Amino acid sequence: MFYINKLKRQNYIVSTLLVVGLLLTIEFTQRIGMNNAYQHMHQQSSQQLSNLVGYIENILTRFDKIPEVLSKDPLLIQVLRSPSDESKVNRLNKLLADLRIMTQASDIYLIDKEGITLAASNWQMPLSFVGMNFAFRPYFQEALQGKLSHYYAIGLISDKRGFYYAYPVIDNNITLGVIAIKISITDIEEQYKETVLNDSFNFLITAPDDVIFISDRPEWRLKTIGDISTMKQGKLIAGERYVDNQISSLNIVRSTSSYFPKKLSSQLLEIKTIEETDQGTAQSTEQVFALKKLMKNANWHVHLWRSTDEIKHQQIMLITVSAIGYLLIMFLVLFTNERLKNARRLKESQQLLENKVQERTADLSATNVKLHEEIAQRQQAQTQMHEMQEELIQSEKLAVIGSMSAGINHEINQPLAALRSYSQNALAYQDRGMTDKVKNNLTLIIGLVDRLSDIVSQFNSFSKKSTGIATPVNVNNSIMAAMSIVKHQAKAEKVTLTNTSSLVPLSILGDGVRFEQVLVNLLSNAIHALSEQTDKQITIAVINANPRVIIEIRDNGPGILADNIDRVFEAFFTTKDNFGLGLGLSISHRIIESMQGQLNVSNHPDGGAVFTINLPVIGISKGSSKENHGN
Ligand code: ADP
């Protein structure tokens, strides 16, 4: 809970900081960006204003010398001296008309010193200046004083704005009249408008009386940008400069912007316009970036006004770009921070994991050492057990031999007794000199010794320790060997041994001595089980069940008690009170299992026990097997 509250507070702080940062970034960017934009606009406007001033000055100075040069023309003096000379007046009228075309002036005319126009370039026009009195015009009055004069005014007849040049016509130091040239302001406006068509600014020229005399915006013309008081209005009308045009005010006020650089000579203005529409009056406000320059010759102020829409667009762009930029940077910062945090966490968990792995490895190494020790101990124990097992197997063999000792005794004692009597007889025959008989007895003795050594050698090979190495073993040969070992006991016990094995010589893989031991053990047990029987039968059968071989040893004894049948293969299980070790079947079972086989027991339905050995066959043996019936 505490953690969640802390997290919420952290998120709140981060969000607040982000918003404050965003606002500061926008403000900062605007401050710099807008400052630059205004500076740039100022530079651009200054350049354009200089061009405009240059252009107008150039036009005006172009006409400066013309009146003076014209005043020197003798025809002018002649007409002024004799104004009634029609031919001369006509000549001058034509000359002035030609000069007007050449100079692109609006009108050129000659005024006598009373102010009456004697000749004019527009002499043929319906509203010709000829005969008109311009004595009231300041330019005429100034020129009469003997110098070039400039003047701007609205034409009395044409009602068009014009700029006037006037120069005195002097002959022999007597001022006879004035030559005047009027140029059309409209022409200047139109020409300049064409050149600045692509530049998005407006221009206006104001006279010292603050009246806009020239402008590319017709609705601004003849309006004052200054204060218009009744007195001023009266003064303007009295001067007849603007004839009977009402001079109204162009409603402009100073405007401000916190981003506007203070040191700039330009300023922001707002022009308020009231428009008459069908729905009534509508007021619109236009903000302009204003710059002005004084045109010294004419004492005019040339103004350049540029709409601030462009700057406002830039401002919106700046706000958008700075906000996007800021958010992008913040996103990157937060994202990188998050990644770094994740990387740190990952590193920490990796370190943790590494530590755990190291701990586990140390544990494992310790366990491994312990395990190795245990394995070594087990191996030692196993070796000991193996040795003990070998000993046991050997003891069991000897026990089997022991159990057969009665039969063997009989088998050995009989030839020994015969040997004794043959030897005594041989000695007696020797004394009597019956060499033939001696020889005969010695031959019999040799035969008996051979038989004895035969018996002993059979037991010798059985009692010796096995190699434990698996080699191909011929099943029939092993059965024959086992039978020859037990046959003396069988004979003593009057047991009939019958071998019904097939003629096919089959081979198994294993230790031959041990396999033989199993067979001897099973046969010996069967002989023992038949001790109480009258008719004693043991049958050995070999069944070829490719890929396996089944060896059955059946007796017709009492069989195995149902309670004991599951226990006969247990170690130390025996029903033989006096001499049984109870190891024979358990060892035999293990030997057969080690040869990938099984040793089972069952009771035959006709009575007696049946022991079955089941082993894998590895091939058909080369040697042949023969059916053998022993007794
Ligand atoms: P031991 O012969 O020393 O008793 P074994 O392991 O060879 O040990 O035999 C265990 C027991 O199995 C014998 O004591 C006997 O009771 C029983 N047994 C073995 N073979 C036969 C058989 N052919 N008929 C009846 N019982 C048998």
From TrEMBL:
Stored Gene3D superfamilies: 1.10.287.130, Histidine kinase-like ATPase, C-terminal domain, PAS domain
Identification of the protein by name: C4-dicarboxylate transport sensor protein DctB
Keyword ATP-binding tagged: yes
Transmembrane segments: 316-335
Listed EC numbers: 2.7.13.3
Membrane-protein topology: Multi-pass membrane protein
SMART domains to which the protein is assigned, alphabetical: HATPase_c (SM00387), HisKA (SM00388)
MF annotations from Gene Ontology: ATP binding; phosphorelay sensor kinase activity
Keywords linked to the UniProt accession: ATP-binding, Cell inner membrane, Cell membrane, Coiled coil, Kinase, Membrane, Nucleotide-binding, Phosphoprotein, Transferase, Transmembrane, Transmembrane helix, Two-component regulatory system
Pfam families for this protein: dCache_1, HATPase_c, HisKA
